[in-house]
């Protein structure tokens, strides 16, 4: 179904995948893993046909469904609704529209020809599952945590996270022979993740998935392709492991231990031969010749030596001490917001004092992202008010990275938005693990994890004292997630946070929890942590 031979992938002039060769057959469940910035998203985009390879060959057989990290900007259906967009995955939106036109023509002129045309179209529509299609869509979207009234409404009225779930529903509904899924569990609560894992486990086609959700990887895959950016010097950038993600991790650790032991033995032998050569170098002519031969041996040993596995540390994020604000940094009263149907937010009251952390909880569609967009000034409430306290500076992290300009480099983002020099910008980006050529890379070509780090670096550069954070750990690998959690936990400013990441929330230790749509504000207790993934 997918044959890859000697594939090269470039991003922003960097070679992130070199001479990769592998195949994916029907029934294979493949996890593509590697640290942030290793090239997983870029490789998946090339495999899905969204970008051209820099070299090599890809052969695809069968229908392909590709979920990128960016939600669709517009629908693919004949109508502007989310339902029509999902139905377009099997062409049933157009087939249904054609059937309606043929029915109208038949009612106007019940000729034998019109009867025959309508009969053929209806039989084809029935055989393709057209009459049960909306029920199938409702089942899939309900599994992914989308209420049917949202699915029947306009696609562009949905949040970025909802649009991405609609796109995932479209791909699952399409019945493709192969699925390429980039972070499919982003924006899903625990129930929706469980539903997706069950779906993928029973899926009979081929699957290639990029995910930092270790439960998904363990339950849904049977092979792992490890992409190591530091190995991109020729063949060997991708190493294949058979088994689950847990089995891969054990095998990878064993490989790294063997590589480290071999590197140590080779280094010891090089040191021994070098010492022996040095001891003979300034003695007799005969010994000098022996020393020269030993030097040649050292050169050969060095050329054959392997390097030990890189010991990667989580990026050391450091948020500067925020400027002082007044005692109350944020107050809201009676906030209401709707999108043409029932209000998403209905009478939200809240207050945050200096240094407090408020966690916003609620099921998908309860209005968490909508609330943060209103507080950030990106969207306006239909009614109600909110005000910022004295000396408050707001930094907003949007889950879809709305504040990033695709054509601007990482350095340009910091220089243009904070007034920092290039040297200062590079130093700050380096602290977030965005160094070297990555700092000059256009934001639109970055991986999801790199975009997250860039957006967080912008918050640091802005020296804000109130942060509005909407799922700030999405797309981050485990080490980076831990680093962000530790850094924010130590920061003394105020925060309003939306997150499904239980470990992140526990590390943050919120003071308050706002539960939507009940609009209740309670003191945080660890008893609520079990509800975070569900909300």
Question: In summary, what is this structure?
Answer:
This protein has helices at about 40-45, 80-85, 90-110, 110-125, 135-145, 150, 160-175, 190-200, 215-220, 245-280, 285-305, 370-375, 410-420, 420-430, 450-460, 480-490, 500-510, 530, and strands at about 1-10, 15-25, 30-35, 55-60, 65, 180, 205-210, 225, 240, 330-335, 345-355, 355-360, 385-390, 395, 465-470, 495-500, 510-515, 520-525. With about 525 residues, it is α/β, with parallel strands linked by helices.
Descriptive account of the structure:
41% of the residues lie in helices and 20% in strands. The protein contains 18 helices and 18 strands. It has helices at 40-47, 82-87, 92-108, 112-127, 133-143, 148-151, 160-173, 190-202, 214-220, 245-280, 285-304, 368-375, 410-418, 422-431, 448-462, 478-490, 502-508, 529-532, and strands at 2-11, 14-24, 29-33, 55-60, 64-67, 178-182, 206-210, 223-227, 238-242, 328-337, 345-353, 357-361, 383-388, 394-397, 466-470, 494-498, 512-515, 520-523. The strands form four sheets. It has a six-stranded mixed sheet, with helices on both faces. The protein has a six-stranded mixed sheet with strand order 14-15-16-12-17-18. The chain has a three-stranded antiparallel sheet with strand order 2-1-4, with helices on one face.
């Amino acid at each position: 179904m997918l044959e890859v031979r000697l594939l090269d992938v470039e991003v922003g002039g960097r070679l992130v995948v070199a001479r990769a060769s592998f195949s994916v057959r029907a029934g294979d469940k493949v996890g593509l893993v590697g640290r942030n910035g290793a090239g997983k998203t870029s490789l998946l985009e090339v495999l899905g046909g969204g970008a051209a390879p820099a070299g090599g060959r890809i052969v695809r057989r069968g229908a392909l469904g590709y979920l990128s990290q960016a939600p669709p900007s517009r629908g693919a259906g004949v109508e502007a609704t989310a339902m029509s967009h999902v139905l377009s995955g099997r062409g049933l939106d157009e087939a249904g529209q054609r059937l309606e036109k043929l029915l109208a023509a038949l009612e106007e002129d019940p000729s034998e020809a019109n009867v025959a045309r309508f009969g053929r179209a209806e039989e084809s529509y029935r055989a393709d599952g057209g009459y049960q299609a909306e029920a199938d869509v409702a089942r899939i979207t309900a599994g992914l945590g989308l209420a049917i009234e949202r699915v029947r409404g306009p696609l562009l009225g949905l949040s970025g996270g909802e649009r991405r779930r609609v796109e995932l529903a479209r791909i699952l509904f399409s019945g493709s022979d192969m699925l390429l899924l980039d972070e499919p569990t982003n924006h899903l609560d625990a129930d929706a993740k469980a539903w997706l894992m069950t779906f993928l486990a029973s899926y009979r086609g081929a699957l290639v998935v990029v995910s930092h959700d270790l439960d998904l990887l363990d339950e849904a895959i049977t092979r792992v392709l490890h992409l190591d950016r530091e190995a991109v010097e020729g063949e060997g950038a991708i190493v294949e492991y058979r088994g689950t993600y847990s089995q891969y991790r054990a095998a990878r650790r064993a490989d790294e231990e063997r590589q480290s032991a071999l590197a140590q033995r080779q280094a010891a032998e090089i040191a021994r031969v070098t010492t022996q050569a040095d001891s003979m170098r300034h003695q007799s002519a005969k010994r000098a010749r022996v020393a020269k031969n030993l030097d040649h041996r050292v050169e050969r040993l060095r050329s054959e030596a392997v390097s030990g596995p890189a010991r990667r540390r989580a990026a050391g994020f450091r948020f500067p001490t925020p400027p002082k604000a007044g005692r109350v940094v944020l107050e809201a009263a009676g906030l209401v917001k709707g999108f043409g149907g029932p209000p998403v937010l209905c009478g939200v009251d809240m207050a945050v004092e200096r240094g407090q952390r408020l966690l916003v909880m609620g099921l998908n569609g309860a209005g968490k992202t909508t609330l943060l967009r209103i507080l950030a000034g990106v969207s306006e409430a239909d009614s109600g008010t909110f005000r910022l306290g004295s000396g408050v500076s707001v930094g907003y992290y949007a889950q879809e990275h709305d504040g990033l300009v695709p054509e601007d480099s990482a350095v340009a983002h910091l220089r243009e938005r904070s007034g920092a020099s290039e040297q200062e910008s590079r130093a700050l980006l380096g602290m977030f693990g965005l160094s070297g050529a990555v700092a000059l890379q256009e934001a639109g070509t970055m991986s999801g994890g790199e975009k997250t780090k860039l957006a967080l670096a912008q918050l640091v550069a802005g020296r804000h004292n109130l942060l509005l954070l909407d799922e700030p750990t999405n797309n981050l690998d485990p080490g980076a997630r831990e680093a962000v959690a530790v850094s924010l936990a130590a920061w003394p400013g105020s925060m309003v946070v939306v997150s499904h990441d239980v470990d992140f929330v526990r590390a943050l230790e919120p003071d308050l929890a706002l539960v939507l749509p009940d609009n209740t504000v309670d003191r945080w207790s660890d008893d609520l942590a079990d509800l975070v993934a569900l909300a």
